[in-house]
Write a structure and sequence with these properties.
The protein is mainly alpha-helical. It contains 23 helices and five strands. The radius of gyration is 25 Å and the shape is globular. It starts with a helix and ends in a 7-residue tail after the last strand.
Length: about 525
């Protein structure tokens, strides 16, 4: 099967366009991450917090200026990032594998993973940006090692800065690619001190606005370092934490490469089974020195990535997330297909792999529609985010008298989606410090909003208050951060509307107009 480079890029574009169409024609609501980034994008700042690097918020703030934030624009930006990531990964594979069919198979491998093949299309906007940054950086690194041109170092340095602005987990990749290159004698000459310093300088200049913001908010950094030190001084808790982290690390790393790796092992069994059972003849052909060097480099890239990731996971206070393995295991598909390339022609196995990838892509596209149609009947009414009647709630707030002013909540999905429906409002959320939001500039209303609590959420409440009362986190935020004088926690009104795609299930939005303050009006 002969594939031209432009044909593979076109197929990647069609893949992203198909998923864009599915996302655009199912839920009209923003996902949790889309909602939180649109909240931060109300202002263009140097930073928003240590856990939220600002690149996506900056992108959304720019798109808000033109052409304006809307569901097609937000989802379109996500799939442009994914298309760039997959395309650059293919180009990097071409630099390494040379053969078009092997390179196309390597990029198709991502459609056979749970993270990229499914989760990326459900939410994970930040993970998509991380994948794009790492893939583009891998492309830059393979260009440097192939042609060793100064312009590729500029490209790489700029990407390192942008990647760090997308996610701090990204920094694993430049560390391990440099380490893997230094450990591979064939490529070691491509790295010089001055080239590394030049790339690092470019990366620092790109990262500088955020670094200046962090320097002006030392409490953000000290809070993170304080959490790490607290864990290190508590030996019993540290041991339990490390044990749990090790178990999660093993499970997540295996989950990251499935089910793609299983299909590879089945179809290309003649590459690995003779190692376990020598009665089978091993397939091997003569290998050029540069091909062997690429294969060893990608093995070292993966091993170094897993070691660095293990160190980071041990120090992390947060639970391990699947997308954290992107910078560590980005080279895994290419490494596997370097073995295929070395062992000669696998025409039938390669065609079978392509067929499996096509079937999976079509299956996922269909299942996303099925999932959209069926989940509304089984999700809890206070948790059906994709089916929440946001537009109807926004109209209800307007009918209740809200025309301008500030909306305050303690649910990022709710507040972000209300901002999308009422873009002229100033929307705050208790999950974020007040300084990341715009200053109050109107003499409008201050309205608090929250969703109905039912099922497990209601059973977990032990404060004995009315289930319809304002959540404690929202009340504390109004009092302590916004200076609002609350006289009651009871709602002033309730807007109950049917869930999207359902005629028999509904969900309620409670609201209360609070006395305006300087920070909430």
């Amino acid at each position: 099967m002969r594939l031209e480079r432009s044909a593979v890029i076109l197929l990647i574009s069609l893949y992203c366009l198909a998923h864009f169409a599915v996302r655009f024609t199912t839920s009209p609501n923003l996902t949790i991450e889309e909602a939180q980034f649109i909240l931060m994008a109300q202002t263009l700042q140097g930073g928003y917090g240590l856990d939220e690097p600002p690149l996506i918020a900056w992108l959304f703030a720019s798109l808000d200026a033109w052409p304006g934030l809307s569901l097609p624009v937000i989802v379109g930006a996500k799939y442009i990032l994914l298309m760039a990531g997959l395309s650059c990964f293919y180009l990097a594979a071409r630099n390494v594998l040379q053969r078009r069919d092997m390179s196309a198979a390597a990029v198709a491998s991502w459609a056979l993973t749970f993270l990229v093949g499914w989760e990326f299309h459900e939410d994970k906007l930040g993970a998509v940006a991380l994948f794009a940054a790492v893939s583009m950086s891998l492309h830059a690194a393979t260009r440097i090692l192939t042609w060793r041109r100064p312009r590729d170092w500029i490209y790489f340095g700029a990407l390192v800065g942008l990647g760090a602005l997308a996610s701090h987990v990204y920094l694993v990749f430049p560390i391990v690619i440099v380490a893997a290159t230094l450990l591979t004698p064939f490529f070691r000459g491509a790295l010089t001190v001055w080239r590394l310093i030049g790339a690092a300088t470019i990366a620092c200049l790109v990262y500088l606005p955020y670094a200046l913001w962090l320097s002006s908010h030392p409490d953000v950094v000290s809070g993170m370092t304080g959490d790490i030190l607290d864990r290190l001084v508590s030996a019993p808790e540290l041991i339990d934490s490390l044990r749990n982290a090790a178990i999660s690390y093993g499970e997540k790393s295996i989950e990251f490469v499935l089910p793609f790796t299983v299909f590879w092992l089945i179809l290309f069994w003649s590459l690995w089974l003779p190692i376990l059972y020598p009665i089978f003849a091993r397939r091997s052909t003569d290998e050029e020195p540069h091909d062997a060097a690429w294969r060893r480099l990608f093995l070292r890239l993966t091993v170094a990535g897993m070691v660095v990731m293990a160190t980071g996971v041990a120090l992390s206070e947060n639970g391990l997330r699947l997308f954290w393995f992107i910078p560590a295991l980005i080279g895994w598909p290419i490494w596997l297909f370097t073995h295929v390339r070395r062992a000669g022609e696998f025409g039938i196995a390669t065609r079978a792999f392509a067929s499996i990838a096509i079937v999976f892509i079509l299956l996922v596209l269909g299942l996303r529609y099925v999932d959209w149609r069926t989940q509304v009947e089984i999700c809890p009414e206070d948790g059906c985010r994709a089916y929440a009647p946001i537009e109807a709630w926004a109209e209800g707030l307007k009918d209740a008298g809200f025309s301008m002013g500030t909306i305050v909540g303690a649910d990022r999905h709710l507040t972000g989606n209300l901002l999308a429906e009422i873009p002229k409002a100033r929307v705050l959320d208790a999950h974020y410090p007040q300084h990341i939001f715009p200053e109050a500039s109107t003499r409008g209303a201050c309205v608090a909003v929250w969703r109905e609590v039912t099922g497990e959420g209601l059973a977990s409440r032990t404060d004995g208050r009315n289930p319809a009362d304002m959540p404690a986190a929202l009340a504390d935020y109004l009092r302590d951060d916004l200076g609002v004088s609350l006289t009651t926690l009871a709602p002033e009104g309730a807007i109950r509307r049917p869930l999207l795609q359902s005629s028999r299930r509904a969900s309620t939005l409670y609201f209360a107009f609070a006395p305006p303050s300087e920070a909430c009006r």
